[in-house]
Design goal:
Helix content is 49%, strand content 15%. With 328 residues, it is of the alpha/beta class. The protein has an eight-stranded mixed beta sheet, sandwiched between helices. The longest helix is centred in the last third of the chain and has 34 residues. The protein starts with 6 loop residues before the first strand and ends in a 14-residue tail after the last strand. The protein binds uridine-5'-diphosphate and magnesium ion. Uridine-5'-diphosphate (UDP) binds next to strand 1 and helix 3.
Length: 328
């Protein structure tokens, strides 16, 4: 019989002391169930990534790790955000696992979809996207904003899987390729499709949070949307370049027109029109400069090549040494 793959379930946690005691057991049950059916190795693990929580999350993780060897934990030195936490976990898992599945810790994503993901891996897929089949539990506003977000990303030329968040299986091979992506601005759901390889999707129902509250209010959601576009696509720059050409042509026509008017002797003291043009051009230019500035800012962050995560603590049984394991 084929050697069963070692699965690492990578779970980012930020201030989740309310929900972690309720969901941690579910991950372990799933590992037991899948290994019982011979689909994964009994040496599979649940790897919690504490994203610099300020509450008792790390203590809970340490307790879990002390109680059962299937639980592992790493802790980021400070809060770096969901994407960096998932990335840190995947990179930590990379050398020990055959497959990884990233999933939120709040029980919103249906854990039972993991079986179908693992089956797809056995069929030769290197990446399996968890895709929500319905958004019935989301508010109408969240549904609408999320759906327009995917449409906008598509329009901007970012290849994203519709209704896929960060519930995803990645094989070790895919993780090794992901590690080669050098960008500091992480947008994992836009990066995974760029890795390529055989991939597929698995549908699942998204539930309500079991406890605690969302860390993604509207402001953060908009920031993620804008980050997604400007990290993955240069279409906004192309669009403003196109608009720049258009306005340049328009201004040429305007110049010809005003010179002709002056030559014909119809020119009047045109304060209003001058002011309008100046204001219009000023407005357009500052808007465009802003968009360009956003990219310059990104370049600035990228050239600094800072570590993308810094691990400050690990539960005793986690693999590897602390030295040299940080974020590159
Ligand atoms: N999370 C994180 N760092 C953060 C914010 C969130 O690691 O700065 C984790 C959080 O613990 C959860 C996942 O990311 O496991 C998704 O967050 P949340 O459930 O708050 O977002 P929502 O599901 O409402 O979009
Ligand atoms: Mg959630």
């Amino acid at each position: 019989m084929m050697k069963q793959p070692v699965l690492y379930i990578v779970v980012p946690c930020y201030n989740e002391e309310e929900v972690l005691p309720r969901t941690s057991g579910l991950f372990l049950d799933e590992i037991r169930e899948l290994s019982g059916r011979g689909k994964i190795s009994p040496d599979s693990r649940v790897l919690f990534v504490d994203d610099g929580s300020r509450d008792g999350t790390w203590r809970i993780i340490c307790d879990l790790a002390a109680r059962d060897e299937h639980y592992l934990g790493i802790r980021q030195s400070r809060n770096r955000g969901h994407q960096n936490a998932v990335f840190a976990g995947l990179m930590e898992a990379k050398d020990s696992c055959d497959i990884s599945i990233s999933i939120d810790c709040d029980g919103q994503d249906d854990i039972h979809a993991m079986e179908a993901m693992v089956d797809a891996y056995h069929d030769g897929c290197e990446i399996v996207y968890g895709v929500r089949t319905s958004r019935a539990t989301d508010t109408a506003f969240k549904r609408l904003s999320a759906e327009s977000f995917y449409k906008l990303l598509r329009f901007m030329g970012v290849d994203v899987v519709y209704n896929h968040a960060d519930y995803r299986l990645m094989s070790r091979r895919a993780l090794e390729e992901l590690a080669k992506f050098r960008e500091v601005n992480l947008y994992l759901r836009g990066m995974a499709p760029l890795i390529g390889f055989k991939s597929t999707s698995v549908g699942y129902e998204r539930h309500e949070r079991l406890a605690g509250k969302s860390h993604y209010p509207l402001g953060k959601m908009l920031a993620l949307a804008f980050d997604g576009i400007s990290s993955m696509s240069i279409k906004p720059m192309r669009m403003i370049a196109g608009a720049g050409v258009f306005f340049f042509l328009l201004s040429l026509i305007g110049i010809v027109w005003s010179v002709a008017t002056a030559l014909c002797g119809h020119a009047v003291p045109g304060w209003a029109s001058t002011a309008c043009i100046v204001l219009l051009m000023g407005g357009i230019q500052s808007l465009f400069m802003g968009v360009i500035g956003e990219y310059v800012g990104k370049i600035y962050l990228e050239v600094k090549d800072r570590p993308r995560y810094i691990i400050s603590e690990k539960t005793p049984r986690s693999s590897g040494q602390m030295e040299g394991k940080n974020g590159h």
